[in-house]
């Protein structure tokens, strides 16, 4: 797996936070499942360099 870019770290952290808060407030497992799917999708997108941040240095 490739290292996570700054943008990817921020997006995954925000998604995880919203998943936890949404699941706690709504008490629906579907919300948690969608959050987990979103994080998995973001990791795949990072692997294929689809979330490039022009400010990241190599």
Describe the structure.
The protein is mainly α and 58 residues long. The chain has one domain (6-47). The chain is built from two helices and no strands. The radius of gyration is 13 Å and the shape is elongated. The mean pLDDT is 85.
Short description:
The protein has 58 residues and is mostly helical. It contains two helices and no strands.
| Mean of residue pLDDT values | 85
Structural class, judged by helices and strands?
Answer: mainly alpha
Largest beta-sheet details: none
Count of discrete domains: 1
* Distinct helical segment count: 2
**Shape estimate:** elongated
Distance between the termini: 16 Å
What is the chain-wise order of helices and strands? HH
The strand count comes to: 0
Quaternary state, please?
single chain
List low-pLDDT spans: none
Beta-strand residue percentage: under 5%
Helical content (DSSP H or I, runs of 4+) = 55-70%
What is the CA-based Rg, rounded?
13 Å
Write the layout of secondary structure elements.
Elements: H1 6-26, H2 29-47
Helix pairs in contact: 1-2
Descriptive key words:
2 helices; mainly alpha; 58 residues
